[in-house]
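This section describes the prediction task in plain terms. A model, or a person checking by hand, is given the sequence of a single protein chain and must write out its three-dimensional structure as a string of C-alpha cells. No templates, partner chains or ligands are provided. The sample shown here is typical of the held-out split.
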Amino acid sequence: MESRADYNQTTLEQGWQNAQSLRSSLKSGLRDDDVEHSHTPLVKSVLRRSPLFSRRKNTSLVNRIIWLLLVWSVVVYILGVAGLWWSTNKVIKDNFSQQATDWVSKLDELGTPLYAANDEFLFQSIEEQVSRFPEVSYLRYYEAEKNSIIAQYSADNMTDKKIPELNSATIERLRLNIDSAKPVLIQTADDSSSLFQVASSIVTRSIRSESMLDFDIEEDSKENYKIIGYLELGLDFSHYQDKLKKNIFIGSVAVAVLFLIAAFFGRILIKRSLRPLTRMQKPLEQLANGKIDVHVDGEGDEEIVAIANALNTTIKALKSRDEELRKLANYDALTGLLNKHNFNIQLKQEIQRTIDEGDSSALLFIDLDQFKHVNDNLGHAAGDRLLKQVANLLKIRIRTEDVISRFGGDEFTIIAKSIEESDARVIAESILKSMQEFVFVEGGQAFNIYCSIGVVIINGDDFTAEEVFSQADMSCFHAKSEGRNRYHMFDLPEQEELRKSADISWSKRISDAIQNDYFTLFYQPIVSLNGDKHEHYEVLLRMVMGKDEIIHPNAFLPAAERLGVAIDIDYWVVRNALRKLSEFKADGRDVHLSINLSGRIFEAADLIDKIKRYITQYDVDTDHVVFEITEQTAVHHIEKACETIQQLSALGCQFALDDFGVGFSSFNYLKRLPVDILKIDGEFITDMAKDPVDQAMVQSMIQIAKTLNKKTTAEYVQDAATLEMLKRFGADYVQGYYLGKPIRDITRQNYDDALVRVETNILTF
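The expected answer:
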C-alpha cells in the first residue's frame, strides 16, 4: 500500500480498545472483570491479600485482634495458675518437711526426760502443748529395748483411725539414721491421705575418757550414743493446704474477671484505635471494583496516615492515567480537538437526534489549501504549529454546543447543531473570512493560509454517518475544484449528475489506459530489518495522461469499481508486474515484488488460470511473488479468499494481508487465512513515535504475528525514531518515504541507499 501524507491524524477507533487494555493493566486488580482479562495487576494483588479486603474469611480485623489477645491472655492465665499451683504445692511440701524436722527436734527434747523419770505427769504436759497445734494428729514414744509404746497422744479427729505401730524395718532404719539430724519419713501426704508421718531415734550422748585428766590432746574426743527410745509423729497440714487452695482459687477468679474486664475495655480501645483503618474498607472496595473517584481519609497513627496517603497518591495517579488515556483515545494529541474516532460517534448521535427531534444541523468539512506548501518547505515542526493555530482559530468561530475535530492531516470537521441552511452559510463564510485574515509567520516568512469548505445539512434524511461525511467530503472537493478559498453546499441531484459525468469520463480514460498502456508501475522499497539483502518492492499503479501527468489511483479506482472494470485493471497490473520481474531476473537482480489485488478479483472465475499463464509466459520464480489483499477484502470474502490464497500458495506464491489492524476483525480470521505476511496499517505507524497508544497497538500486532509464525511489514515509516522503534518491537520489514518514495525506474542503487539508511539508523540513532 502506498504511503500517504506525512501527518495524517491517527485513527484511534480501535486504538481505544488497546487503551482500555492498558488502563486495566494500570488498574490490575482494581476492577475484577478488567483485571482477569488483562496483564497481571499489582494493586489488585495487594488489596485482595489485605486483611481489610479479605474475601476468604468474613471476619473483621478488630475482632481478629481481640480474639488473638483473648486467646493469648487465656493461655497466659492458664500457664500462670498452673505454675502458681505447682510452685505452691512444692513450697507446701518443702515446708511440711521442715516443720516435721522442727517438731521432731522439739519433741525429742521434751520427751528425753520422760525416759529418765518415767513420770506420767511429764507426758501430760507434753500432751497439753501439742494439743494446741491442730496440725499434730498423733504422737507416740517407744521404749528402745521392747520397742513398745510408753506414751502416746491422738487428736480428736484420729480417735476412729487405727495407725499401725512402727515395724522392725522402720526401727532398723532409725538405728542406722542415728547420726542424721533429719527424721525418717514413714509416709508422705498424698491424694488418699493428708497424714504426714515421720519417726526419729531418741538418743543420749556421753564423752568417753581414756586419760588421767579425762582427755588426750593427741586424740579427738569420742562420743558414746545410746538409743533410749523412738519418737513417732503424725502431722496433718490439710487445714493450711485447703485455705491456700481456696485463696488460690479466689485469686484466679479475680484475675479471670480482671482479664474479662480488660478484654472488654481493650476491644473498645482497639476498635477506637483501628477506626481510621476500618473506615478505609468501603473506599477500598469501591477502588477494587474499578471506581477510582474515591478518597481515603487518613487519621490517627502515623502508619495509618501513611497508608491513606499512599492510597490517595495511587488513586490520583490512576485518575491522571485514566484522563490521559481518555484524551489519547478521544482527542487529537497535537491540537487537543476531538479525533476522528470520537467525531464519528458524535456525528452518528447528532444524525439520530435530528431524526428523533425533527431538527436540522450542519456538517462542515474544512481542508487547508496551503498546508502542504508550508509542511514541505518549512518542515513538520512548522506544520504542527500551523495546525495548532488553525485549531485555535476555528474554536473561536463555533458555539459551545457545537463539535469540532481534527479529522486527519490538515482536515477539520465541525458539527453545527440546530441550524438551518442559511445559518450554515453564515458560519462557513465566517470561517473563510477568518482564514483570509489569518497570517502564519514562521522563520521571518509570512504565509496566507486559506481553506476550502464542504457543507452538508443534516435534516433527518435516511443517510448514514458515512454517507453524510462522504457528501461533505465531495462538497469540499467541489470547492477546491472551483478554485479553493471558498465553500460549497452539498446538493444531492447535482452530486449525482457530477458523479455520473465523472464516471462516464473515467470509463473512457480507463478503457484507453488498458488498451493503450496508459497505466504505469511505480516501485517502493520494502527493506528487511533482519539482514535480508534481497530487493523487495511494492508495485504501485499510476495512470499517465497527456503531457506525462501522473494520476493517483484514488482518482480513478472508485470509478473503476462502480463501472466493473477493476478486475481488468488487476489483470493489467499482474501481467506487467510479472513481466517486469522477468526483466529483473534477466538483468541478474534478485527481486521480490508485492502486487496489490482489489476486492473484485475474487469474483473472477479465471483468476488462477490467468496467473498460471502469466507465470509460464514470463518464466518467473513464484517464491519471488507476493500478492496483497486488504484486511476488509479478505474478511468480506472470507471463504473465497481462503480458497484463492491456498490455490496461489500451491503455485509457490506468497500472500500478504494489507491494512492489518484497521478493524481488528482480522484477528478472528487469522487462523483461517493462510497468509504469510501481515502489513500493519499505516494509521498506526504515522504518529507512533509520539503516541503511546499506537506504540502499544503495533507492538501487540507484531507479537500476534510472531505467535502465528507470520512476518510483519510496517508501512508509512516517516522518520528515524519510528524506524528505531519498529526494530525494537521486532518488525521484519519496513517501507515509507523515510526509506524511499515510489519511483518508476528503480535501480539496485536506490535499494542499497534505503538499506544503508536502515543500517545506519539502527547503529547510530
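For orientation: The radius of gyration is 54 Å.
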